[in-house]
Write a structure and sequence with these properties.
The complex is a heterodimer of chains A (about 140) and B (about 475). Chain A is an alpha+beta fold and about 140 residues long. Chain A is about 25% helix and about 40% strand. In chain B, the strands form four sheets. In chain B, strands 7, 8, 9, 11, 15, 16, 18 and 19 form an eight-stranded mixed beta sheet that branches. In chain B, strands 1-2-3-4-5-13-12 form a seven-stranded mixed beta sheet, sandwiched between helices. A two-stranded antiparallel ribbon of chain B has the order 6-10. The chains are: A alpha+beta (about 140), B alpha+beta (about 475).
């Protein structure tokens, strides 16, 4: 479930009842994109999802951490209400204002074989920070 | 966890004295082994809950407690609105009013022996389970308001079940004080197509056999006998509840400082019960409870239709329906005084003792049925509330086994098809849309539910009545 240690990349980490998603990128925006990929990988393998339809997402929050939760929850909302899965994300962040796009397709149960539905992104193990090498890490636990 | 962290007041009651910002003690009900195996996050989280304004008596954790969000899963805390008490969206959880409904069938093992695969297929094809499945019911805008205000009563009025079902459902199928107008358009959108669906994760519909009776007098009142076949439905308020939880968690996290609430963990976000935001959430959360009650009522109806087609001699009657993610306004005796409290139960089941006016009349003498869910291969239990439990834990008990291993680890350790084959070897039929989901929910990823139930029984917070073993499991 973990890619090689290149940047950008995403990682899952353990939470006793659920699962943590972590995005690592050269910029904060890239880390947010990777966190959304990690979120999708909780449900299915992104390689099975064709990125041919675009959905725009906008969110705003008082700080980076709440913005990450808002972003992931917005992706969850779009998946749930459009019955879609996404495999590519584009994010731009300016002053805690996020403009993003998610690219994907309608769920195909046979092809995507979704493992589980995500109820929401939580504030548990929530952090958005830059490591000493200058890479951004954006992470939280998601409730499944 | 280290036993030295606790004062052990009796073999099953482990107390943490107030320290730092804690306003009250924290208490965990568990056996020594369960305490040793418990995640240290439970210790941290239950102490954090004890710091919240207006908390009464103690912050409690049940024997199945594990690392949750702000509150531990298995956390119980009561707050007094007259003393600045708070309501917390995290203390209820995302899956508002997730719970278990158990149905009698009037059948015995021999009746279904030759029909089990057919019954499993029919249930799997009719009861929507897993991500991407949609329900058979699509509500118009006005109907959503009626459902949110009316809960299972609304569902029965629509023809999904009978008035008798409501008599053995918590709140008689409808919690009062729901404010559908506080439920956002986003939450309503997430519910489109999700009425009458199980969801995924640890949610399921199981056909079970009563394998053991531990308390024959109570079992007789509950109508349970060895060899009887029952059906248990474990699910909640679906996307609507998840969205309410998401939205109010954020509102409460942002406004906590305005209310002068210092949060040791952002996830404990809360608002004074008497504040505008507290009241707004309470109305929305109660609408979420009604959504869950309506959902389980609709699934009951679908289950009846399936049994009618496969085993027409069956008569499905509700034993009980009880939630384990709620905040409820209740009267409790505290140091001899009756007080109106708001009791949060996050992954904890209400367990009202014998004679309590909110226990259905037909069951009242025996106490409220406490329905403890298992996980596919593991057992489930029916327990009952006790008089001691009312004083010990505000009438609350465990809700299930609790995970022993993360989904991540479980997914690495097992393969879905192998789990299904192993269970088939034990006579348990699994139907699920997702092999990976099955692996992540493998029985071995959970604690021993029997140890949890035994600890709850020994602690006195509930009493064991019957053990149920799975025959068919429809897994979301």
């Amino acid at each position: 479930m973990e890619q090689a240690a290149t940047v950008p990349r995403w990682v899952h980490f353990s939470h006793e009842a659920d699962i943590g998603v972590r995005g690592i990128g050269r910029t904060k925006s890239e880390a947010f994109e990777q966190a959304a990929l990690a979120l999708t990988e909780v449900i299915t393998e992104t390689a099975r999802v064709i990125a041919h339809e675009k959905v725009n997402i906008v969110c705003q929050a008082p700080d980076d951490e709440l913005l990450l939760v808002d972003w992931l929850n917005a992706v969850i909302y779009e998946m749930a209400t459009r019955h879609m899965l996404f495999s590519r994300f584009r994010v731009g962040i300016t002053d805690h204002h996020l403009q993003g796009s998610a690219f994907g397709e309608t769920i195909d149960l046979q092809r995507h074989r979704p493992a589980v539905e995500v109820k929401g992104a939580t504030y548990t193990s929530l952090s958005v920070r830059q490591d000493p090498a200058g890479h951004w890490e954006a992470q939280c636990v998601v409730d499944v | 966890m280290e036993l030295s962290l606790f004062a052990r007041h009796d073999p099953y009651r482990w107390e943490i004295a107030p320290a730092g910002m804690m306003r009250v003690p924290a208490v965990i009900f568990a056996s020594e082994q369960l305490i040793r195996d418990m995640d240290s996050k439970v210790y941290e989280q239950i102490r954090n809950v004890a710091t919240l304004p207006g908390i009464v008596q103690a912050a409690y954790a049940m024997p199945d407690a594990h690392w949750g969000y702000g509150f531990p899963i298995g956390g119980v805390a009561a707050f007094d609105p007259a003393q600045g008490g708070v309501i917390s969206a995290g203390g209820v959880g995302f899956d508002i009013s997730c719970g278990v409904r158990t149905l009698h069938t009037g059948l015995h093992s021999a009746d279904i022996a030759n029909h089990a695969p057919q019954l499993a297929d029919a249930l799997f094809s009719r009861v929507p389970a897993g991500l991407g499945s949609t329900g058979h019911i699509h509500l118009a805008a006005g109907e959503v308001d009626d459902m949110l205000a009316g809960g299972a009563r609304w569902a029965v009025a629509q023809g999904y079940g009978t008035p008798e079902d409501l008599l053995c459902t918590e709140e008689e199928g409808c919690i009062s004080g729901a404010l559908p107008q506080n439920v956002s358009g986003h939450a309503r959108n997430r519910q489109r197509g999700e009425m009458g669906t199980l969801g995924s994760g640890n949610h399921y519909l199981e056909v079970q056999r009563v394998a053991e009776i531990h308390d024959s007098a109570t079992a007789a009142v509950f109508g349970l006998s060895e060899g009887e076949i029952v059906v248990s439905i474990h699910c909640g308020s679906r996307g609507l509840g998840h969205q309410i939880g998401t939205e109010y968690l954020k509102k409460m996290a942002i406004s906590a400082a305005e209310y002068g609430i210092e949060l040791p963990d952002r996830e404990l976000a809360c608002a004074p019960i008497t504040s505008a935001l507290g009241q707004e959430y309470l109305g929305a959360m109660r609408a979420g409870i009604n959504c869950a009650l309506a959902n389980r009522q609709i699934i009951t109806h679908i289950t009846r239709e399936v049994f009618a087609s496969v085993l027409p001699q069956a008569t499905l009657r509700v034993l009980y329906d009880v939630s384990h993610n709620t905040c409820k306004e209740e009267q409790h005796l505290v140091n001899g005084t009756s007080r109106r409290l708001f009791v949060h139960r996050k992954g904890a089941t209400r367990a009202l003792g014998p004679g309590h006016p909110e226990v259905p009349r037909a069951l009242r003498a025996a106490g409220q049925p406490v329905l403890i869910g298992g996980s596919m291969g593991t057992s489930s239990y029916v327990m009952t509330g006790t008089p001691q439990g009312m004083a010990l834990s505000f009438g609350s008990a465990c809700h299930g086994a609790g995970r022993a291993m993360s989904r991540h680890q479980a997914g690495k350790q097992w393969r879905g098809h192998q789990v299904i084959d192993d269970l088939a070897g034990r006579g348990i039929i699994i139907r699920s849309p997702s092999a990976r989901g099955i692996a992540e929910e493998a029985p071995g990823a959970y604690k021993d539910v029997t140890a949890v139930v035994d600890a709850a029984d020994a602690a006195g917070i509930a009493r064991k009545v019957a053990k149920l073993v799975p025959m068919i499991c429809i897994k979301g």
